[in-house]
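Dear colleagues,

For the upcoming journal club I promised to circulate an example of a predicted protein-ligand complex. I picked one with S-adenosylmethionine because it came up in last month's discussion. The inputs are reproduced below in full, followed by the predicted structure.
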Amino acid sequence: MTMGGDAGHDLGGFIEASEADYYEQVVRRHFRGDGCIVDAGCFIGASTKALIRGLDACDPQHDAELPIIAIDRFTASDHYVVDFLAQMGADVRFGESFLPEFLRNLGQQALRVEIRAGDLVQVGRIERTIELAVIDLAKTPALNGFVLQRWVPQMVPGHSLIIQQDFYSPTQPWIAHSMAGLLDYVSLEHDKVGESAVFRLERPIPANVLREATLGWDRRDALPRLDRMIELLGTRVSAPLRLMRALAFHGLGHNAKARSLLEEELAQPTAPSDQKWEKWLSAAVVAVMPEAFEFNAVLGQLYWRHGAQRLGHA
Ligand SMILES: C[S@@+](CC[C@H](N)C(=O)[O-])C[C@H]1O[C@@H](n2cnc3c(N)ncnc32)[C@H](O)[C@@H]1O
């Protein structure tokens, strides 16, 4: 869908429509212009464009510097990224740059963005005040640790917001664990939009607390933290964190406990609203109770999901 030369092209992205709308609204309501917005892991710019739409609506009195800092490696280094680009018809091979796609997507709006192309640890030094950070690259505990330890000290207590885009993804449990470790200093601004959770910095966080929060997510003493976050979120939205909890027990060798927790989830009368719930739950079941799947059943599933379409049978 083309929006016209100056406005760029609408090339989509990984965030859900509800998240894009929320990002726009949050900038509109929240951004004062005395700091910047960081779009960390912007990919081809769906999140960036939503943030720009918010800026257009609030027209803040910002300083001479560009209001948005967009950070990404801008190289197709993950298979899901390569697949997405292939699906949209982009000629980008594994390891090549997708920065041209980002620029095409943004059009003239790219001039309003400080684009930082490189690995987070190479290009992520920020010395400005940060009013809003949208984090979509905390893909490892180390990257999450970098973001929280380097950027939270640049934030304004009582004002700045942290959007953790992968908060509900059970493959990245260190995010929920780290935010749980900061709950004496941050409040929950918005419990759930898509896979994101939104936190407000309430008071300055000592460096040792920030460091401690980002370590040890895979240790036994991590479980009470996860429990605290699950309690705060409540049953309606915490199902993915309950999967993280079951997987944590599994990782610690408590298989019977892990199984009983998963069985509780399987017995729920209604599925949570998460778009990826079935994928997450089935992956957890395969990990914790692989014997539940007969070889032929798995083969059949794979055939229907991947093979049939490729062979023209579906
Ligand atoms: C899920 S995508 C982000 C989706 C995007 N926010 C959107 O609106 O569609 C995650 C992005 O993080 C980037 N990324 C992952 N690890 C990174 C790192 N260490 N440094 C910089 N970028 C990284 C990837 O290149 C990818 O574009």
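Two points we might discuss: The CA atoms of residues 174 and 217 lie 5 Å apart. The chain is about 45% helix and 10% strand.

See you all on Thursday,
B. R.
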